């Protein structure tokens, strides 16, 4: 029997003409792992929030949601709250209490359980999730990934039958995201927990799911078993970007019938189907270096006198007019490097030059006037006003390479993640920087929004702006950068032209590079791989 | 020595209210002396941070408070000298010392109190009273480090956007205010996510319990029982007038009657109870370790 | 008894305790009891008044959103207390009372006092700070309508609140130390506290002046969008 039945569901937000959802129907079986996908604004989050009464948004609702054959409106308060669990994307804001043990106990306190029963369940859950080690810690001392695992654990402790996850890995770095998804898979496989997850990171989540649900403009676009659903949507260019690299290669070369999904399947597909007489694509020309935009010379930095070094003799040069992407794990000091370059932290040794002049020689905030600007990781730190129009007051709107006009009357916090990113970029560009620094600009963006953002950055480059971008999104870096660098333990360990850089890495590289390693020499992006496969032709 | 940290917060709370409370409303110098000795001993053997600094500050406070009283209070028979036509009396000076001993010993009690009753224990105590403010305390404690971090981030973001126009004080204040304003928006908007997360986990669906990781063990019963008994004994002696003490016009003599002696013994036991627990625990550990 | 009268009675009790009973007890303690007992009695009253409010708040069914918003404002004023010299605590408490109701104002004020004292030092003054800040928030909640309408009134309230806070805390300081209310000592305490009083008054006015409008807008938006 279906555990969740969505029947002809429509929804309209108050004071809005267009409905956010119209006539969506599908069913999820007990024990299913279902992925819910779609572009920003396609109604994914709205749909998910309608499945749980407590978090249902205000508005006009038609149709019905049934849980175990019963309308969710008929469920008791307790069943509704405790049998359907919900985890959303912001790890920080979902935790309610200040201590890990209290957070785990929170839901059970609401259930009205006695202390000894709570203690038993909490202990069990802490063991299952392997969080005994930080059981007594304060929530504020945990990393983002740990916080999100804690959020999951503190929902699981109530023993729900269905788990709703709204982009749970959006704010996590790739390692933490993998760990989170692996935990969800374990819950699904070992406890037959039904999972419905909204996710942009399909590269990892898609191969493990049973069912796919695609929404487009508030309507159900595709629904079905994973492999058949992938086949039916890969012809649609709007969705193609969301799919894993192997699927995109398959869609572009139009060969064979079985569509590969994982990296491993992609490699087998390529090895079985294509020649390898031509090993590599022609090398890209490295453009001649102009003058330096930013230069680090043996820079050492630590936050406190008695703490460890965060930057350890960092040296590198950023040339004017190029895009350099710096990759590296969490806590490797990438963001600290940007803060030092922006004059926010002062290194205790070494020298930083911006456009040939030492940072300390920029007096009276001149560093930020027509010189450099840093777009922060958390863009909500730049919004001060009540509408986009007011936010843009001191910006030269005509000079922006994108249009924010449709959102002028909206509140900045009502914009989607991608739109907030653009609004922040507009504010950053208002000080007319010649050097633009970006800190994790793709966090929480979907594939299409990322591609749009990359296009905007390239337009800025064409207009003469030098760009330094710090990210752990290898796919984005491989699309955007002229040069890429690896940051490890406070210094740059390798730096090269983008394609050479990724081709030389074995693990920290794009999935296409991992798929073609050993067979071809420098295929890094899907486009590279497709070009090479077409050059080589189908194996006879 | 941190044995008291593992006691049930309720027992510890009652103990401190009893020991500091009696000190606060007794004027008897012997009681205050005992209170001072007990509080300082506890503070010293628990090795709370900044020992010397605290003692120096306490000494300074004690001397200041002692001197203030005779400057304002001119009762008393024994005139020491005359200042600006006002007699400075021995009785007023002694009264000042008495009050200063009370203030300083209560401060010492509270130093140890706040190191033992940490914020999550306070939360538990509030939870006994009413769960909702207890939850609010937990949330506020969760938000404080989050907001401090976010305020730092916001300030850096604004600086790197060139929002600090000049290097001067007015611009600095203007920017700090707008950073705070950004923080308020951010905190309120993101608070909604917290609220949804609470609702999603069934907050408000029924009678909420308050989970406590603190058990009530025999040692807690003992501490609670002894605190109440000894404080009750001192209280009874006070109510019967056994601890009457006057400074004006002349300082009373302490007569060793039964009631007074009983109250002194009871308070001495009360005052040194936590120090005894700490030392006893340390000895126990030493013994247990010696057998390994 | 009809529900309306019942409600009225409950409200009367709630208003009586902080404004009549608690000060009354203190006055009684000062005039009737001898020696130092009223230091303890007033402490008891402060604690019981705070407890009464806390339990009163608990009876009402408060939505999770409202609860979070009050906690957020409490945390903001705790963070604000770290700002040197100028403290936005009273201003934030007043605004909480104005926009979220008297009880919320009381809770925000009193919880700020007890929690921030984990950083600034706990002592027997904690219950009095809880009571003073709580009452300033509570009173702002009762006077919400006129305060929202007129900025001048709001500033006057800020000035009075700053002075009142200082006056209340000094009464406690004197009673605690002297064991008796001495007008001479009280005046001395007031005089020595002038720099603090001035900084309270100035920060109240400055922060109310800067925050009143944006705060109103932000909380109004919360009200429209999320129904708080």
Task: List descriptors.
heterotrimer, B: 292 residues, mainly alpha, 2 domains, 9 helices, 72% helix, 3% strand, C: 228 residues, Arp2/3 complex 21 kDa subunit ARPC3, 10 helices, 86% helix, globular
Provide an overview of this structure.
The complex is a heterotrimer of chains A (540), B (292) and C (228). Chain A is built from 20 helices and 20 strands. Chain A has a six-stranded mixed beta sheet, sandwiched between helices. In chain A, strands 16-17-18-13-19-20 form a six-stranded mixed beta sheet, sandwiched between helices. A four-stranded antiparallel beta sheet of chain A has the order 2-1-4-5, covered by helices on one side. The radius of gyration of chain A is 25 Å and the shape is globular. In chain B, 72% of the residues lie in helices and 3% in strands. Chain B contains nine helices and two strands, in the order αααββαααααα. Chain B has two domains: 194 residues, no CATH class; 79 residues, no CATH class. In chain B, strand 1 and strand 2 form a beta hairpin. In chain B, helix 1 runs antiparallel to helix 4 and helix 1 runs parallel beside helix 8. The longest helix of chain B is centred in the last third of the chain and has 33 residues. The radius of gyration of chain B is 26 Å and the shape is extended. Chain C has 228 residues and is mainly α. Chain C has one domain: Arp2/3 complex 21 kDa subunit ARPC3, CATH 1.10.1760.
As laid out across the biggest beta sheet of chain A, the strand order is: 6-7-8-3-9-10
Poorly predicted ranges of chain A: none
Radius of gyration of chain C: 18 Å
Number of strands of chain A: 20
Distance between the termini of chain A: 48 Å
Counting DSSP E segments of at least 2 residues, the number of strands of chain C comes to: 0
What is the approximate shape of chain A? globular
Helix content estimate of chain A: 25-40%
* Largest sheet descriptor of chain A: 6 strands, mixed
β-strand percent of chain A reads: 15-25%
> Major sheet of chain C: size, sense and barrel closure?
none
Care to give the gist of this entry?
Chain A is of the alpha/beta class and 540 residues long. Chain A has helices at residues 44-50, 77-82, 91-94, 100-111, 115-128, 144-156, 174-191, 202-208, 226-233, 237-240, 245-253, 263-273, 334-341, 388-391, 417-429, 447-462, 474-480, 498-504, 511-516, 526-536, and strands at 2-12, 21-29, 33-37, 60-67, 70-71, 84-87, 162-166, 194-198, 211-216, 219-225, 292-301, 311-319, 323-327, 349-354, 357-358, 372-375, 435-439, 466-471, 483-488, 491-497.
